[in-house]
Amino acid sequence: MSSYSDKIQSAAGVIDKNGNAWREINAEYAVRMDLQNRFKTGLDIARYTAKIMREDMAAYDQSPANYTQSLGCWHGFIGQQKLIAIKKHFGQTKSRYLYLSGWMVAALRSDFGPLPDQSMHEKTSVASLIEELYTFLKQADARELRHIFKEIDDAREAGDKAAEEAAIAKVDNFQTHVVPIIADIDAGFGNEEATYLLAKKMIEAGACCIQIENQVSDEKQCGHQDGKVTVPHSDFLAKINAVRYAFMELGVEDGVIVARTDSLGAGLTKQIAVTNEPGDLGDKYNAFLDGDYIESADDIDNGDVVVKANGKLLKPKRLASGLFQFKQGSGIDRVVLDCITSLQNGADLLWIETEKPHVGQIAEMVNRIREVVPDAKLVYNNSPSFNWTLNFRQQVFDAWTEEGKDVSAYDRGNLMSVDYDETDLAKEADSKIQSFQADAAREAGIFHHLITLPTYHTAALSTDNLAKGYFGDEGMLAYVAGVQRKEIREGLYCVKHQDMAGSNIGDDHKEYFSGDAALKASGKDNTMNQF
Predict the structure, then answer these.
(1) Hey, which bits of 96-247 come out as E strands?
(2) pTM of the full structure
(3) Residues 6 or more apart whose Cβ sits within 8 Å of residue 367
(4) Which residues are CB-contacts of 176 (< 8 A; sequence separation ≥ 6)?
(5) What's the pLDDT tens digit per position in 263-311?
(6) Residues belonging to the active site
(7) Alpha helix stretches (DSSP H) within 372-491
(8) Could you tell me if residue 475 is left (phi over 0), alpha (psi between -120 and 50 degrees) or otherwise beta?
(9) Which of 369, 332, 329, 364 is nearest to 347 (CA)?
């Protein structure tokens, strides 16, 4: 990448070529505006972030300590503040992504109002949120660079050459807030053509990674709810192909596809798979159907369906809804088959939706998958639908019981109680929660850890705390002590909300365009000067 000084020299050359008509255009100002808008299109972002994600996947293959993380964000501002916080606290954004949750799009971004996670929201809302997230991340770049440009100007005004060079070096080594987004396309919102069309919109908005699940699109349920219905492998693979074609058409050849299986908790299928010969994918799918083997037509009733499986006639159990049921206890085997099949047919990463956060359970499935695909890697949902406290306290309780430790002081069914918070069992459980991501990355093949909807919960919690105090006895002190004072003391840039919203950037532009005649908002009467 050209240096700041080289860019100014190049821009000056363009201006000179256009003669006196461009005399009011300042080369350095033009370069600053260009740097503040590094990514001109969503496809620029998708290509840039796909490369990052592929490099991170290769690094994980070298060492599972190189796992990656993200938090789900339902608004551009939330995503922006997350990345600003990461840069502030850790100095860089490496291995940190954003997650776009279909659940939160349904619950918070639909014109219908709050909806359950059943693909009932407008499909365009997904691509719109990707675009919004990247708009806010690009604005975070513009804001931070603007402050560095101010350092350059102040250093020049003071005649401090060393400070000027140091500020220019910050520009040359600037790290963008733009990071990969793993974007949830649910079950594709329709058939494979619908999946392709939506995937294109998501990629054009900036998505380098699309996650798709093997549920029936018009029967889609949240992965942590009952009633999930899966599709035969051929249907799912057609949608994986559709997403890959979308990536290739748009020139994002290294785009990443995450294939999610809900088979662990899905006990139903809407259709019997097409099979052409014993042992093919359709036959394997149908082999999991629950039912009764029959000898003749006398064993079936009007409207019953019969398939040939394992060399015999099988009458699958069909519910009143018309759905077919899988055999009890077949979930893990179906997950393993789903995952191997997806990786062998174009998927890059896996997502196994589980009912609890248990490293051993995840590792059991991943180890079987890796017998066939050795570099299989997971994206894993550290879901708020899990009661993490109770789950891990019970895991410790069970481990201690197996080891012969005395657990008579604990009631396994009541371990969530605050009465246990200071006990050795609770402390060990918290330690396991703290190390869960590193442990699962090392032992269970998890490349990327995400929390699907944490900012949904943090928004609710912080609003509850403010409302309780502000509308109660604390009055204005609830905001001052609980919000503003903490913003100031913890160094949150957002305390200067006018600057965060772009007021100073706008002032710069006015000066670029109008010179001394610019009417700027950041003068002495701006109350933001109090901070």
Answers:
(1) 96-100, 181-184, 209-213, 229-230
(2) 0.92
(3) none
(4) 38, 39, 93, 137, 141
(5) 998 889 988 999 988 899 999 999 999 999 988 877 888 878 888 877 7
(6) 222
(7) 388-403, 424-434, 436-443, 454-470, 476-479, 485-489
(8) left
(9) 369
